[in-house]
Amino acid sequence: MARSEKQKMLAGELYRAADAEIQADAAAAKAWMVRYNASLGLPPAERRALLAERLAAVGADAVIRPPFFCDYGTNISIGDGVFLNFNCVILDVVAVSIGDGTQIGPLVQILTADHPRDPEERRAGLEFGRPIRIGRNVWIGGGAILTPGVTVGDDAIIGAGSVVTRDVAAGATVVGNPARPVARRA
User: Which residues are in the Maltose/galactoside acetyltransferase domain (predicted)?
Assistant: First the structure.
């Protein structure tokens, strides 16, 4: 049986984003974002209930300060005590998981969406995604960008404005563009 474009997308295979089912999911996410991004003045419990409507998993005491932007939301899992500050973007064409206690600064971009290197495939409207996994107790500084397919280990720190193009080891501190490890201070 032929796989749907959405099934291909979720599997990280080449897919057509213009597919009707995928576009319907994107439209539902946009409608949800309008509601969520208008919720800043609501009590935290009401904002959390809105998150639970759309995200794959929302841990206890998790907070995402609006405005927040995503492709679908349904591929995002956030653990207990996770905090995302204002204006974060998560392009979640495949899974994004954020571990317990992780803190994410404003304007951070978590980007699973990728595009073929072959120009003919791009012209044909094909895309793919690579999942991003962020461990527990990670600190991601404001304006950082995580590129498709990276894994960030537990207790890591990503400096503000860094562009993460490779996996970050547990406990490491990375800074810069591209992000590189820095020596620990005693």
Answer: 6-60
